[in-house]
Design a protein that fits this description.
Two copies of one chain form a homodimer.
Chain A (H helix, E strand, L loop, with lengths): L4 H15 L8 H8 L3 H13 L3 E4 L5 E4 L8 H9 L25 H19 L2 H13 L10
Antiparallel strand pairs in A: 1-2
Chain A binds a DNA duplex (30 and 30 nucleotides) through helix 3.
Chain lengths: 153, 153
DNA sequence: GAAAACCCTAGTATGTCAATAGAGATTTGA
DNA sequence: TCAAATCTCTATTGACATACTAGGGTTTTC
């Protein structure tokens, strides 16, 4: 699994929506500024997440986005699969996006068996991690002091 | 980690070289035919793996490629890092290919902390898996009967 | 009815990927 | 010694994806 910039933006935006879940909707503009994401690009991404049923929107002057379901119900797996496609390192071990590969005997391919392990390891993490979990981590991290390495003169 | 076709070919070629480690060199032509890999493309890949010190070559009429080190000493991690770059899903959690990301506070990024876990899980597998291990699995799988689903009329 | 928001489609610059191509260098062995 | 087989090096190509940018449209509120 490699995350594109688009996928990264999606997760960052959803984290913001998660943190503000109890509030009303959040404007694209706000997310864009908070997270350094190009506004017009973010529009597309959020719109796309709407088709996945992850967020919902309100139009008009008091409009914006919010999560369509409870943060506990939205896993990273669902988001990443929708934005990036397969979680597996090669498509011949993907469950959701399987494609035959060109190797002589897929059913007895040694590489495939290792790639299955990789896939399992990745899936295990992203399927158990929800937006709620992300928010919790975020709240914890906010309470920690800044890492001194991150200060620059 | 997503494997490109190039990376897949590299692993398949190295598996062949691993299985034939005790023999003399193996010709590109042979690997290409056995593994359904375009010959000219495979040339590039093997040449590239030479610069990584993974294989060595012999030129001329009895030429070909062989592993430069014992199969036990070559991990998938080394191969994949050389061909594909970072193992990490985002470059801000990569050790070998770190790059700063655009998020407001990297040191306290919740997404980053999950991505670190993913990275660790992937690295753990590919760093412990060697060409020798791959060969062993291959030999085991060869002894198994063909999966009936793979027969087609 | 005007402003502020989301919505939809299209375009575009850049880069990557998977080859393909051509010509050169090295070795063997007849 | 020469021809054939092999690896070596560099360049090019076509297709596609990525990360935006742009323009106009629709909906809602005040």
């Amino acid at each position: 699994m490699k995350l594109s910039v688009r996928g990264e933006y999606a997760l960052r935006a959803l984290l913001v929506l998660g943190v503000n879940y109890d509030q009303s909707v959040v404007r694209i503009q706000t997310i864009s500024e908070q997270q350094n994401i190009p506004k017009r690009f973010l529009e597309q991404i959020l719109n796309d997440l709407k088709t996945a049923g992850v967020v919902e929107s309100r139009r008009g002057v008091a409009g914006g986005y919010r999560l369509a379901r409870r943060p506990e119900e939205i896993t990273l797996a669902v988001i990443i699969r929708h934005i990036e496609g397969a979680l597996a390192p090669v498509s011949c071990v993907s469950e959701s996006y399987y494609e035959k590969c060109t190797c002589p005997d897929e059913s007895r391919c040694a590489i495939r068996s290792v790639m299955k392990e990789v896939r399992e390891a990745v899936v295990k993490i992203v399927e158990r991690t929800t937006i709620a979990e992300l928010c919790e981590r975020w709240r914890h991290l906010q309470q920690e002091p800044l890492n001194p390495f991150d200060f620059s003169i």
